[in-house]
Amino acid sequence: MFEYAPAPESRDIVDIRPSYGLFINGEWVEPQGEERHKTVNPATEEVLAEVAWAGEADVDRAVQAAAKAFPVWSAMPGAERAKYLFRIARIIQERARELAVLETLDNGKPIRESRDVDLPLVAAHFFYYAGWADKLAYAGFGPDPRPLGVAGQVIPWNFPLLMLAWKIAPALACGNTVVLKPAETTPLTALAFADICRQADLPPGVVNIVTGAGETGAALVNHPGVDKVAFTGSTEVGRLIARSLAGTRKKLTLELGGKAANIVFEDAPLDQAVEGIVNGIFFNQGHVCCAGSRLLVQESIAADLLEALKRRLGTLRLGDPLDKNTDIGAINSAEQLAKIRELSEAGEAEGAERWSPACPIPDRGYWFPPTVFTGVAQSHRIAREEIFGPVLSVLTFRTPAEAVEKANNTPYGLSAGVWTEKGSRMLWMASRLRAGVVWSNTFNRFDPTSPFGGYKESGYGREGGRHGLEAYLAL
Ligand code: NDP
């Protein structure tokens, strides 16, 4: 492989303040407590900024602001709400480069991905739901669907701004107001979004952003003034939330973990499948709830496919996420890195064979090389648990029925991929796989018009598409 000259994106376009307050009622306010948290660049461990830690009193203030804004926002004609959403979408497009650099600095993902995947999808979500705002009566939810009230939304760190868009765009389009808590390690693009709300002249209180840790999220979802809770994150925290909301009037949607099977049949176009496998598990360092973390390959082609896959992995570039040639960025936090290491060690201890390409690891920051485990048994932890890192577990199968059996042998059910030339086999598989999304000869492809969500322990409710409106309407 020939060397590429460094091609770093300039970070001058981003203006990070040393310290951030909370965004409540259209204003930046100081939290009542003294506690603050430093957010770091996971690629360098450099401190980027200090953010406020919202306590119960701050969350209460934010929920009250959202409740006060609700009668005005919900009574506004849909076409007027749409104007705000279109304006937000256009500002996001105008500021896309700045937001992509900020996302990459705070999250560690390659600029190529934040620039070419995250940001276009963020804008697309706002455009898409802006289009629905004046058509709710024709969406199939009755002639006069009503919003729910205040939505409490808690999001994770893997796609910080995109998850914000998935949550805020449909909520606002339907006439709800929101209080959103970004993840502890990636608050900066949500705080930039607060500025965008001001730039768009969004009425005060319609969007409120409270930063903090798990306790802040718990205070938000348990606040009696919240009418709807939307959560994306781990199954463990999702369970906690479901338990604490049981018996309340609050409507809940949960988008949790996954352990998706990416299934390759012997008739699949091999080179295309290799690209799909790489995109399935190494996109965003594998920090993807629907990642294709279990490769199920038909035994007859397993040796050839693995050889081609290893060759391809040898060409991936790991390093500076701001470099436009980088394929694999940094792991988002020291905690996540420890989890990936622990599960990878368990894989070896349980007898699977570990392989990574020769890949220099930077001295500072949190990094994990792309890793492939072969000889994986279904009972191994690396075949059952969500690793949420650039680690692929390879299993084999002989017949389509065995592939279905193995693919469904998981407590999760978020996504799956099938690679085959045969349309009939594709449909046969898709109707048997217990997964919310089944990709056909592709993987990790997202579109705001398409609903997304899980079966079993991957959660309930759908985000995206017309289905995504349902979660924010009283039916
Ligand atoms: P969490 O589920 O803990 O975090 C998701 C969000 O929930 C964050 O904003 C978090 O805040 C918040 N939160 C944490 N505890 C509570 C609570 N009791 N009540 C309300 N909100 C809460 O995920 P982690 O970041 O800890 O990651 C752990 C594992 O979860 C990963 O290794 C991965 O396997 C999985 N995961 C799955 C995701 C998915 O999309 N399916 C996304 C992220 C993680 P804070 O960040 O401040 O702790």
Write up what this structure looks like.
- The chain has 475 residues and is an alpha/beta fold.
- It is 38% helix and 17% strand.
- Strands 14-15-16-13-12-17-18 form a seven-stranded mixed β-sheet, with helices on both faces.
- A hairpin with a 2-residue loop joins strand 2 and strand 3 (27-29).
- Helix 3 packs across helix 4 (111-132) and helix 9 packs across helix 10 (302-313).
- The chain starts with 18 loop residues before the first strand and ends with a strand.
- The model has no long low-confidence stretch (mean pLDDT 97).
- It binds NADPH dihydro-nicotinamide-adenine-dinucleotide phosphate.
- Residues 154-158, 181, 183-184, 213-214, 217-218, 221, 232-234, 237, 240-241, 256-257, 289, 336, 339, 386, 388 line the site of NADPH dihydro-nicotinamide-adenine-dinucleotide phosphate.
